[in-house]
Amino acid sequence: MNPSTLIGMLASLLLLAVLLMFSAQQPGLFVDLPALGIVVVGTFAATFISYPLREVLRIFSLIKTVVRHEREYTQEDIDELVSLSRLWLDGDLRAVEDALERVKNPFLRCGVQLVIDKTPLDDILDLLQWRIARLRAKEHAEAQLFRVMASYAPAFGMLGTLVGLVNLMFVLGDGDMLTIGRQMAVGLMTTLYGVLLANLLCKPVAVKLERRTEQRVVVMNMVLQGVAMMANKRSPGLMRETLKSFVAHYQNDLRDEPVRSARALIPLKWKARA
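Structure for Chemotaxis protein MotA, as requested:
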């Protein structure tokens, strides 16, 4: 499981437990199945109306993607590009093709195959950039799905509150304050559920998916740069250092931060001999 997702889930459960245990006189009043049904069913109903069926059905697989810890293969991609470039410079086309069959990254394999086929560099870059743009648009639409759900959930929470207020009007004439208070509490539950669904599930998942897309685009741009250098027959050493700059993490891009602070020098005072 993704560590940050696990920490967020545990923190959310802890927050809700603290609110129920220390801020509510009757924690059972915060459990209202009809109010929860209005928010959840209404949100999904509006989402089904807004998006095609195949996209809505991907909600659960996308949540699984956010929860799952994905391993990064950036270093493996760099090593494969450098080794393929070295074989390409040696002129061993058969060895390049054999090594290319063992490459698992389809984007990298496509770019190198185009280089082997002696496709013009401009055409290679156009195709790879188009694939990057297509992936970015596809995954942006997936994240946007959860942002739309985050906007629907509070709206249906307010709808449930309005239903509760209508029921409140019917019992208002009886003058029973206990019944009036319970109806008001039930009416406000839907707003609470809508806010929780939007801000503890939908929006965090959308942000996580957008961040994942940014990281994948960086890796794809790194591969694109490596393919371009391979087509231009640049040295493997230069390629390795260039590709490492895509994934290097610096605290300051203009100046290296000291690892540890240097000890202050103690001034020495010399006494002149008598």
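Residues 38-61+72-246 form one domain.
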